[in-house]
């Protein structure tokens, strides 16, 4: 097993019913369904600790274009990294000038009484495809079941917005109950719900609840942010193969989408290594199935 220095950065890179509509396969497209951009400041990005030095840099349009060229990508979905309306506005402004950004998952104050006015403000922003709250950092594992939070979620569908679920595996039981409260709301599960990945131990609890959540057809899933959940110092394809196989089995290529979680993935892997790993994992799929995984699942989920 080869270890990779996560500090290498990127400079070396050469519908109305609430369920997801299916379109004709785009066989020649590649969409990264999950990435972040920022102009780094310690005050604005307090979650980036000293141990994450590789992330304490600007990741913006030029770096995005470099990745797209090296990896032959056609577009990205930009996801919030700060829980502020300023973050949402920043991503939307960048999307206006950067054609590679096909859609934005922003942040809005879902528990605020002012949410209706905030959503109305963004009603004409075609680039805003969804919203997300960093539930994984909430101290209460039942946060998803709060009444005020669910009132906010009920307002999203009339605005055509997806909700991205960012949780740890231990929060999956609450997520299942939460999704069942909103059978017509489209959901996207980030990072396969962040199982604890160890080379000598499989996360059995994750599998049980992950399989159950996948039974809800208004949920699609991102195979992204996986290597950063590996607890071992090194990882290889076999470290994550079983997690991919389960995700592919229960969500199928039509409801499982490729994502990188760049630049956070740099803590464990270079961009191209992650892309090549997923290509290997998906190599047994048909051309049409690979098109679903690498492009169409994201296009359909976010109406890109």
Automatic annotation (TrEMBL):
Keywords: Hydrolase. The keyword Isomerase does not apply. InterPro entries: Amidohydro-rel (IPR006680), Metal_Hydrolase (IPR032466), Metallo-dep_Lactonases (IPR052350). Residues 31-302 form the Amidohydrolase-related domain. GO terms for molecular function: hydrolase activity. Pfam families: Amidohydro_2 (PF04909). Belongs to the metallo-dependent hydrolases superfamily. This is Amidohydrolase. It comes from Novipirellula artificiosorum.
